[in-house]
Write a structure and sequence with these properties.
345 residues; alpha+beta; 5-stranded antiparallel sheet; 3-stranded mixed sheet
Amino acid sequence: MLLTIAKNPIPDLSVTGALDPYAEQIEQAFGQYQQTTGEELAEHERQAILAQLITWSGPAGKESFPSWPQAVRAAQMRVKTGGFLGERNTTVVKSRNEGLFNMAMGSVNWANCGKTAENILSELKKKHPTFVGGIESGKREKVGSGAGKRLLELLREVPPQGQILLLDCTIPFVHTFLLEVHPNGNRYLCQGYQGAYYASWWTGKDEGGLLFGEQQDNKISNDDRERLSRTRDDWGLGRSVNPNRYDETVVLLAEAFDKAALPDIGKGDDGLEVEKLNREELAAWDVFAKYWLGLPFCPVQRETDSIARRTQRPEIEITRILVPDVTANTGTSVTVPVVPNSIKG
């Protein structure tokens, strides 16, 4: 690990899967470069910069930067001064790094949960122009801790004949997922999860899209992997969710939100309102985290431990979208088909 960012050692990024945890930060750094310099980076320039970052992370490199944006800026200067982007080298750079670049950016677009939902909706508008109005006029509602009854009402809704209901759901700073509901009761869950799996793995299109195999992440136990696999069997693979399982789980999620709102958790005796509130909010997430392994998102212990340390009380934002039923009342999924077959090219 010879590249450090903000004093954190970065592993050899040429190893399969090593880029995935950093892909979103690198993409954001590309965007920040454009904002600060006014220069738009062409795709082959991004590929060359990524190649330089990979070189620095390998055995022959030794570089340290305070942030990813500064690393990208330095890599861009190195590429320019080193002649890496000379006309004769452009084709070579592209051919050598296009697959790796697409894989890294695929991680941003189809493993990051928020980006996955955003891209599914974007692709749906391209594939089904009649969806545009419904998607763009979707109405968002925020449901806070203690409002489990309202959460159940929203998640149990079934659209009228001739329409499909899309529920774009975000638990801020935790996870975003997309539910597709049909008049006949068929429901499909589409999602990616940063650092865990691509949407293509979740939908059963690419078995290589699981980001923590045995060789990739020793902090994930075999029990974690088996639990995640069973969750995908029940909720993913492009299949509609069993109605009983669906209802049991949304009841569990509503209970988690209600329990997180209990007024007596975390109370202290020091009389300092701010400190008391902080303790209550931390305790609220600790309560919520106890339900995490039973929810169909990323049921692994590492995520449970991370969620238990969040601050502010849990809430969920649900954007309700109605679009025409283009499936001729068959109840087949419209979201699953727009997920790429493979993120890795």
